[in-house]
């Protein structure tokens, strides 16, 4: 278990996993990896197309295998898609890992991603859909996380700093 990612970021879409993940990788001089990007590269199509063509269940299975490969083979910073924690097999793969939940309140979420229709799960009524999504997911993020870092009113640099502090990775 000592090999594997230095940090695994989970949290809802828009919580800054990619931006903060890239900053953390830079700070640690370690590579950055993102399971969404791994899936797009392996499948040769966008995530929204996978959802439309094959459904969410199929996407979650692809995501589980992407997480399995990444926790086994990646020793830097890893960011997961916002819904990865919905899959029990994926949650099992995260046990004992340095998982950080980047949390965000509902108003911040609507500001950051509410109008972004490229996010397939939030297209119609962002505020209500966000509440429902978080009711279904909050306990799962908390369950897999070693630490929780609130991102509201913080810059990506401040969030990265808070993550390093929380995991005691500061030099
Ligand atoms: C999803 C979040 C997305 C992506 C997919 C599903 C979700 O990742 O995996 O669109 O279910 O919340 P990001 O959190 O990186 O946007």
Question: Which features does this protein show?
Answer:
171 residues, alpha/beta, Rossmann fold, 5-stranded parallel beta sheet, 8 helices, 5 strands, binds shikimate-3-phosphate
Could you provide a short overview of the structure?
With 171 residues, this protein is of the alpha/beta class. The chain contains eight helices and five strands; from the N terminus they run E-H-E-H-H-H-E-H-E-H-H-E-H. It has a five-stranded parallel β-sheet with strand order 2-3-1-4-5, with helices on both faces.
Descriptive account of the structure:
By secondary structure, the chain is α/β, with parallel strands linked by helices. Helix content is 54%, strand content 11%. It has 8 helices and 5 strands; from the N terminus they run βαβαααβαβααβα. It has a 5-stranded parallel β-sheet with strand order 2-3-1-4-5, sandwiched between helices. It starts with 6 loop residues before the first strand and ends in a 5-residue tail after the last helix. The site of shikimate-3-phosphate (S3P) has 9 residues, from loops.
Task: Provide the fold topology.
Blueprint lengths: L6 E4 L6 H12 L3 E3 H9 L3 H8 L1 H18 L3 E3 L8 H7 L4 E5 L2 H8 L12 H19 L2 E4 L5 H11 L5
Parallel strand pairs: 1-3, 1-4, 2-3, 4-5
Bound molecules: shikimate-3-phosphate.
What CATH architecture would you give? 3-Layer(aba) Sandwich
What count of domains describes the coordinates? 1
Which kinds of small molecule does this entry bind, naming each only once? Answer: shikimate-3-phosphate
Helix-strand pattern: EHEHHHEHEHHEH
- What is the number of strand segments? 5
Shape: globular
InterPro entries: P-loop_NTPase, Shikimate/glucono_kinase, Shikimate_kinase/TSH1, Shikimate_kinase_CS
EC number: 2.7.1.71
Subunit structure: Monomer.
Catalytic activity: shikimate + ATP = 3-phosphoshikimate + ADP + H(+)
């Amino acid at each position: 278990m000592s090999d594997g990612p230095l940090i695994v970021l989970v949290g809802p879409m828009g919580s800054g996993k990619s931006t903060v993940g890239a900053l953390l990788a830079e700070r640690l001089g370690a590579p950055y990896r993102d399971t969404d990007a791994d899936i797009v590269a392996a499948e040769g199509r966008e995530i929204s197309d996978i959802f439309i063509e094959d459904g969410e269940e199929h996407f979650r299975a692809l995501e589980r295998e992407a997480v399995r490969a990444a926790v086994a083979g990646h020793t830097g910073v890893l960011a997961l898609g916002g819904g990865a924690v919905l899959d029990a097999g994926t949650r099992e793969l995260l046990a004992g890992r340095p998982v950080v939940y980047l949390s965000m309140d509902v108003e911040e979420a609507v500001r950051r991603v509410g109008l972004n229709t490229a996010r397939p799960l939030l297209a119609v009524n962002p505020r209500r859909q966000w509440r429902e999504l978080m009711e279904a997911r909050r306990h799962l993020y908390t369950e897999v996380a070693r630490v929780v870092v609130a991102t509201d009113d913080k810059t990506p640099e401040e969030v990265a700093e808070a993550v390093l502090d929380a995991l005691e990775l500061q030099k």
